[in-house]
Amino acid sequence: xxxxxxxxxxxxxxxxxxxxxxxxxxxxxxxxxxxxxxxxxxxxxxxxxxxxxxxxxxxxxxxxxxxxxxxxxxxxxxxxxxxxxxxxxxxxxxxxxxxxxxxxxxxxxxxxxxxxxxxxxxxxxxxxxxxxxxxxxxxxxxxxxxxxxxxxxxxxxxxxxxxxxxxxxxxxxxxxxxxxxxx
Length: 183
Description:
Helix content is 42%, strand content 16%. By secondary structure, the protein is of the alpha/beta class. It has one domain: 3-Layer(aba) Sandwich (Rossmann fold). Strands 1, 2, 3, 4, 5 and 6 form a six-stranded parallel β-sheet that branches. β4, α6 and β5 form a beta-alpha-beta unit. The longest helix is centred in the last third of the chain and has 18 residues. It is globular, with a radius of gyration of 16 Å.
C-alpha cells in the first residue's frame, strides 16, 4: 500500500484547490491512499518565536505525516503568477530545523497540481515550486502535469468535481504519481 499526503495551499473555505484535493482522495488507484491535510493553524514564520517556543503543534503533526508518507502531493493555487505566500510559509515552517529537512523532504517523491479560475491553470505557480523542492532535496515527479483552468466550471457550488474530462485526467495523474512513489 502506497500512502500519499496531500496538502491544499489555500486557506479559503471555498477553495478550488481544496476541492481538487478532496476529489483526488476519492480517485486514488487501488493500493494507494491519499490523506488530505491543511495549512490551517500554521502561523507566519518568525525565527524568534521558533527559537523561544519551538515548532507549533500543527507544524509538528504535518511534518510527521509527510515524513512517514511514501509521497507528497502539493495542491497549489497561483497568486500573482507565483506560489501563494501562505503555502510557502507552511513549507518554510516544515523545513525547520534545517537538520530535519532530510527526514521530511529528502528523497521524498513530490507531485504538484493546482486549480485556478483563470485560463492558464497554475502553470507559473507549479514552475515556481521547482527551486524550492530542489533545495529541500525532494524528488519531483515530472512525468505528468495537471493544471485545472476555469475551475469555476469544473466544480459545482459545493466544491464537487463535476467535469468528467478533469476527473479522468486527475485519475490518470494520480495513478502515475502513485506508481512513481512506490519506486
